[in-house]
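Let us begin with a simple case.
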Amino acid sequence: MSKKPFYITTAIAYASKKPHIGNTYEVVFTDAVARFKRMQGYDVYFLTGTDEHGLKIEELAKAEGISPKEHVDKVVAEIKEICKIMNISYDGFIRTTDEQHEKVVQKIFKKLYDNGDIYKSSYEGLYCTPCESFWTESQLVDGKCPDCGRDVETANEEAYFLKLSKYQKWLEEYIEEHPDFIVPESRKKEMLNNFIKPGLQDLCVSRTTFTWSIPVTFDPKHVIYVWLDALTNYITALGYMSDDDTLFKKYWPADLQIVGKDIIRFHGIYWPIFLMALGLPTPKKLYAHGFLMMKDGKMSKSKGNVVYPEMLVERYGLDATRYFLLKEFPYGQDAIFTPEDFVNKYNFDLCNDLGNLLNRTIGMVNKYFGGNVPNYTGRINDVDADLEEIVASKISEYENNMEDLHFSNAIESIWGIISRANKYIDETAPWTLAKQEETEKLESVMSHLVETLRIVAILIKPAMTETSNKILSQLGINEEASKEYDTIKEFGKTTSDLKVIEKGEPIFLRLDANEEIEYIKNKMKE
């Protein structure tokens, strides 16, 4: 039976500078969704990449005394290295300087022009270089860019425009008739009430004041403006309008596109209109996530509060870093990074709750049964039944949360199982059962604990792949057996004749909180 395709994308990262931990959240989140869907049996195609054109990059390269291509090559190498460090399982990585992308963008521009959706005029307005955005006077906040708060400049030039106004009514109706197209709800309302209903202005889609972009084939003094170039990556990467469009036919429309809240306007307005004008279906869902903030606002070098992911991974491990990011962000909202929170989550959630549960279980199976896991024989008493029922309800809760992109809640569901298992040890008191030679009850306790840990290991796999594999290895379960996701739906699916390892290495070692908090603070200042 062929697997159902599932296409998921991140926004492509702007290749201006090395990403910090906040920039990394989106790709980690998307990776966890992709891994979850693969675990469920979908044929996933996960795309990420880099946005490499525009005036800002041209100016950065000039300041460095190098070419724009040299600048973006350097930053792209750093971004790819971060993806490697964070174990990002992307299937495709697109660069907007890729030859195929540039050629197809030119074809798309020409098609829209030939169809009458793009026309030539002149532009006079206010331009924010860092955001690559034009604004009207009324859209400014205290005379500055409403997105980044920086100064804008007056721009006056000949340009090509896309007829956004032509599609306003269609887009408004489409969003209202498809309530899950833009999530969360607050972002959908923002798009409709703040941008679409007040009236869409036609969009400037070419520039003549810089050269670092894709030339318009039939008017080469113009280069194609960033949003038409960048947004179309999601279809050019699949081979749209190229010699081989197999992937495009298989995966488009995208099932889920994940973007930051700062660019949902472009994805929720410009992008569906581009697609409509090309006669293509829109993505099924756009999800806008929040930002990772510091207590004193956004991360910035000048504030001395920047945290880079490789520092956390090197000192605390990949999975602790991924766990923090996925747990810390509420659905669609901002999160706050503090060294104290990071260290506390490591010590309490990972070391105390999960690590101790595994260590105690491995130790008791070795002590009481020579490492041989007793076969599951069903529910011996009420406490067994309660554990199984809690596990089943938390699995259901976890799946609903994952489908709804409530990842922080999904992790809480897993930790609900871990917490119940730790309580189960105290309730059943295996040491007392051993002393009283209540062998049947002791066997039941050990098989229940091993089975619960197996289920936990599978549930955490999208977020914490390394930890998942370590738990399964310590339980004597090979990784292949763990891929049977549906086996978690019925308690007691552990393979018979399991043998745990003699003494497991702790998967998380308790940190000296004060020392590590100070370490992170010092690193942030470097």
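The second case is a distinct protein. As before, the sequence precedes its structure tokens.
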Amino acid sequence: MSTWLLEIAIGPVQGFIAAARRSRDLWAGSHLLSELVRATARHLLDNGAKLIYPLAARVRRASPDENSNLSNILLAQVDAADEAAVRELARAAQDAARAHLCVFADNALNDWQRGSNGARIRLRRDFWTRQVEDAIDSYAAWARVAEAADASGDGRTPYRIAYDKLKGALAARKHTRDFAPMFPSAASDKGAGIPKCSFDGLRESVLPELPAGESFPARFGVAPGEQLDALGCIKRVVGRNERFTALSRFAAHGWLSGLDDKSRSTLRAAYEKLLDPALDLATRAVDTAHADFPYDGGLLFPERIAVAKQERRAEPAALAALDALRRTLQPIWRDHGQPCPYAVLVIADGDRMGRLVDRARSAEEHERISRAVATFADRVPGIAREVAGQCVFAGGDDLTLYFPLAGVVHGAFDLHDAFTKELAEVVAALPPSADGAPPPTLRVGAAICHVLEPLAVIRQRAADAERLAKGEGGPAAPGNALGLLLSLRSGPQVGLRLSFADAHGRAALDHWQAAYAAHRLPGRLAFDTRAIGLHCRAIGAGAGVAEGEFLRLLARARQGGGGERIDDATRNRLVERQAALALFAGADDPGALHRLGDELILARWLAARSAAEIGAFLESH
């Protein structure tokens, strides 16, 4: 018997997680991928393999109340007689993932074909079958652990030598493009004229054409004109488990928190009726952080009510329920305004984690790293809950979360602190990096987007924000920052990179939010501050000229509402922040005011509760 290292990668991440149009799609894709990894890992464990990552305890623990938290890479140590035995184990483990997907697929197919009122939906079964067979990209590689160190004398342990060979073999396997066509050449035009899936446009839709005036059952959430491939259909069924909270609830969170008890109680009673399965107009929010209003928030927005009425125009009961909800909301909208329609999708990832893993010399050290990352992942749902957010996916250091506007900065810094704390001990115990690279850090990208934007667009904005977070540190020290990206609907973007080491910057952002909430800052100040920086840079004026213009601007500025001048404390804080940013930018660069203007714009959004606040802010420009 020999000892072998076996690594298996399950994917594609894009197909399972990134391809989504609704919150249920995003959660369901994350859950599906995690469960396929769990099936693979269980097969390895049941056949005597020792898991290095993910941890065996995490694989065995599969509570429906937990968020998905298994990454798509598995590493195991296997005792086998020869390479053929390892190859067979890898193949069987990969087959276990495919078999598990077939269970999800069969359940979803039965649900879709059941239709409603006894009608049967005839999906395109040939495409369904082929797409399910082709849904998983799975790669495996292995290497034998020699009994003694190699003769090269480079100091590597036998485990480390095998691990290096394994990583090279897996990279080579991934670059071997041996994908088969979906159909034989004789049927290569089978997809001609078939619409593509609305998620990503990669595969043909399996949905049939319906007669004019008919629609798919409401439980599947198919919008008019929307097309779904097999995996999209599976997500729509899995997502009905309601173990997620819709993005609209996070957008409405600040507004709901500002309602009086009577208004909130009246609204809860009206919303509860929408959960009737015969109507299927709303879903229940599952996180305890939303116990004051435990529903999705979609129909709190008048635009969404109008869309729902159009989609359900042939259903009198649904139309009556929507009209009743609007009547309930009208006096609340009059007194409190309409909810702010912006929420935050966060994507986070660890920097230099590969270098940390490469420092391990044994399976025990790899397990120690895996345990530290797993402990961090276990803390993520609680960290999100503290600021009324929710963890959608926590695959080790790879995170996807929802946050309300007011909680994103606090939540991002808490994630960073937890990540640093959990990895500190294992980092100290490992040998130093050969190139002197600093320890791993977390980068967090937060996209502030309108809830009516397609989720695929919002997720792309979050990926852009993550790249912004990685930005300025260079190859030796990237990340360790929060990238905030505000994406106005049909408008420009405003980005801000806030280092987790910048305590002064965080305090300033918190102060601007509080000042806006207390109406101590006028809306126009942010745009005028930004304009001064842009103008001075355009004419070649230095920081001194820009500062003088800024001081004159502050002397004229009035508090929100156009009353008294801004108070001395707020004015002094603005001057102090401008000076700190100018010191960083340099004497010849007036860009500090551009950065300060961006801070003020983003703070206005983070402090917003109602759509009217955002509208007044934009009108001030």
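The mean pLDDT is 86. Residues 166 and 499 are 36 Å apart (CA to CA).
Keep these points in mind for the review questions at the end of the chapter.
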